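Format notes (please read before filing issues)

Several people have asked whether sequences and structure tokens are stored in separate files. They are not. Every record keeps both together, in the order shown below: the sequence lines, then the token lines. Line labels are part of the format and must not be stripped during preprocessing.
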Amino acid sequence: MKDIEQFRKDLFSKSLKDFSTPPHLLDHSIANKRERYEVGRSEIPLPALVEFLFKMLLGFPAYGPAEKLRWEILFQFQNIPCAFALEKSGLHLYISCNARRTAEETNQLKKEIVRKVQKAIRQVEKILRPFSEEQLAQNNVTIDNHSHRLKERYEYFRLKATETAYPVDIRSQGLAGVLNNQVKNKKTLLFNSVAMLDAYFSYLEHLFVLLAPLRLDDFKIVDFIFNKKLTDKFDLLFKLKENKKAKGYHDKLLKIKEEFRNYFAHGNFEKKGASLYIHLPHIGAIPAQLSKAGNNPHFEFFPINNETFENICIFIDDFNSWLSSSASGVANEIQIIGSGLSMPCDKKSILEMKEAIKTPESLEAYLRHESEMCDKHDNMDY
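Then the structure lines:
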């Protein structure tokens, strides 16, 4: 506590020495008597830190929430009544009007206030870093749910690849035109298919991270995200030794990932020198895999053809259907993720979600309530 008190004194004596609490509560009905300035994300990226600084650390008077307003904090700067307000349209700074002050002077005042608050926030972040690390270690975090956006990227490139795999009739263009278009279509199919797979495995990684808090009792979210490979995540979530169906999906996905996605993601190099050529004396360069290279899909100039693409898509659809079915054991968890809600990882929130997925009725009620609260918060409909 002494450290916090000293920190407050340091703020008021240095970066916030021109700031003070208002001598009395200001009348909020006189908004037309205040100049309103937008404070962009490039100036103050996290408005929450303004609230934390003035309201929580310094005890300045605050209002809200109200209609389209999350909070408003009153203060004086050089004895001039001001306020920061987080509104639906963003963070704004209000400065009381003064007929003797020019517009340019008021604008300079705004810049000076923002500059000093920026400096104070940098000081606040220094004392928050240990707390942030502690929160991460204790799983007291929320994971932003990007599953819909990542799946949309996969579906976008899949559609592009599908259009190439089944092109319009080009026979009227003559033999040269047909041959040129065939090569062009094969190339385009390959590029879109690789982009599709890259997007799908990105989506799958994200999905597994969102599943982890609901499926695993003893885990660290940072370790799970950054230190566990896809195989590790798959095994932790589905117990591959005990679940033959999950093991089958895992093995096939891993094969697709290694043969197509990883090859292109790693600069067209495969594991253990498989993409290299050895020098055979008096003959020349030949594949290091020797005759096994003939079984490698990349031995072909276009490793993904129409049939390969179709088979990959059929398999992915089958795997996605299994994940959403009761057979996977995660159907209800997938439903929560599919709602688009962010995933809190703290113990209290996880217990609430685990209780909610016990019955279809409780799950529906939970999703309805959380979605309404989320919409209310996002739209500031207080």
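For reference, the curators noted about this record: Residues 2-137 form one domain. The chain has two domains: 2-137, 142-379.
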